[in-house]
Design a protein that fits this description.
about 450 residues; mainly beta; Lipocalin; Methylamine Dehydrogenase, Chain H; four-stranded antiparallel sheet; globular; disordered N terminus
Length: about 450
């Protein structure tokens, strides 16, 4: 069946994730208020593979080790790139292989091997050092879920609702579980989550299930989204965002559903919030940070679920999966912008634009931050390494504030003048003893 975009959902997600029949219309970039950015981007290197024609990138992620970063594209390219900046493009690429079919999930790095899933149902392992083919296992359909490796097993999902466990060394199928799939769903699936001998899976039916990693037996199940509405489109209840474990709690976000905190032992709820979303969310010791289907960002107390803040400034900007950078929230949008957001207040503190050589903002499909370095994959198949540094304005402000504090500190205990006009002298001097930067610090 021919795939085409459904207008209403494209506006909500910015991705061609549905199979339906409609003609897409152009989406206009929402207005952003100007701001003084605390960070700026400095390009280390850039490597172009091939464009991502259908933006089928929900299962594609970066993998990395100490010296290399690995990425795959829908066009079938799998590449190993050196992290350090090389003088030539050919030196930046450690190796590159091209598959006959599209890569739709991965890569996952484990024990010196990379695992990728293809659109033709193959799970493939290659040697991370050279890209040399190791083995391939044919599964029932597209391998849309990035592989998870634990207990010497590989766990992954296929588009037809099957959960697989395979031998991590040989790729042999050990067991599989079937799940009834709805008529219509979002494109892609979250990775299987492993925790203390259990597997946690979010399904397109709005169900979350826990399985024994050893045998595949069902331990419990609970629902975070209930289908409602008259059309199949309205009744979509995917669990599309990656599941997360923090402080012995399982956190799940459902599309047309809820944000739920769940006891991983029995599936009972700790709290439930009326938030619908499908993008990956993040957490720290204090809070959960979530973007909903309308591109509104939230901070929730990780224990009670109480709302800490709500940020509406990104509505309609097609915000992607959230991540962390410099201990701040990093959000990317559909027009190539990176936004750094303060975790405590939910305020945007920095903004930078990723663009091609023509200055056009390419949509960022995947982002990975490591210290002061950020790696991006965009919809033109371009992988870019940036250094994230304080902006000139931030450096100026820091220098100005340090100077001001130093001056104030030295004036805390001034020597008392030996004259009787002490008080009048202070009053007379105060009106002209100012710096222009006190009024115009820029």
């Amino acid at each position: 069946m021919k795939k085409c975009l459904t207008l209403g959902f494209v506006i909500a997600s910015g991705l061609g994730l549905l199979a339906g029949c409609s003609t897409p219309q152009p989406i206009v970039e929402p207005y952003m208020a100007p701001m003084e950015s605390d960070y700026s981007l400095h390009k280390n290197w850039q490597v172009k593979l091939e464009s991502m024609p259908n933006r089928d990138s929900e299962g594609l992620f970066f993998a990395e080790d100490g010296k290399h970063i690995y990425a795959a594209t829908e066009t079938g390219h799998l590449v190993s790139l050196k992290k350090r900046n090389e003088s030539r493009w050919s030196d930046q690429v450690q190796w590159q292989v091209k598959f006959d079919s599209a890569i739709v999930s991965g890569p996952t790095l484990n024990a010196g091997r990379l695992l990728v899933g293809t659109s033709k149902g193959s799970l493939v392992a290659v040697l991370a050092e050279t890209g040399e083919y190791l083995w391939q296992t044919q599964l029932s359909s597209e391998v849309i879920s990035r592989a998870t490796i634990a207990d010497q097993k590989i766990f992954t999902r296929t588009v037809d609702g099957k959960l697989y466990a395979l031998n991590a060394k040989t790729g042999k199928v050990l067991w599989q579980v079937d799940h009834q799939m709805p008529t219509l769903s979002l494109r892609g699936a979250p990775a299987v989550l492993y925790y203390e001998g259990k597997l946690f899976v979010g399904w397109e039916s709005g169900m979350v299930q826990a399985f024994s990693a050893k045998s595949g037996s069902l331990l419990w199940e609970t629902r975070v989204a209930v289908p409602s509405g008259r059309t199949d489109l309205e009744r979509i209840v995917d669990v599309q965002a990656n599941l997360l474990i923090k402080d012995d709690r399982l956190f799940v976000l459902g599309f047309h559903g809820k944000l739920a905190s769940i006891n991983p032992e029995n599936g009972n709820f700790y709290f439930v919030k009326e938030v619908s979303g499908y993008r990956d969310f993040i957490a720290d010791d204090r809070a959960l940070y979530v973007v909903d289907e309308n591109d509104i960002l939230y901070g929730f107390n990780i224990t009670t679920g109480a709302t800490l803040w709500k940020q509406n400034a990104f509505k309609g900007r097609l915000v992607g999966d959230l991540s962390m950078s410099n201990d701040e929230i990093l959000a990317v949008d559909g027009w190539g912008y990176l936004h750094w957001i303060n975790k405590v207040q939910g305020i945007e503190i920095a903004r930078a634009k990723h663009s091609n050589e023509y200055g056009d903002g390419n949509r960022i499909l995947r982002v990975y931050s490591e210290g002061k370095t950020t790696y991006l994959l965009d919809d033109e198949g371009v992988i870019t390494s940036y250094n994230v540094t304080p902006s000139n304005l931030k450096l100026f402000k820091e220098q100005y504030n340090e100077t001001k504090v130093s001056v104030e500190s030295s004036n805390e205990n001034p020597k008392k003048p030996n004259n009787t006009d002490d008080e009048s002298s202070k009053k007379d001097d105060s009106w002209w003893k100012f710096k222009l930067s006190d009024f115009w610090p820029f």
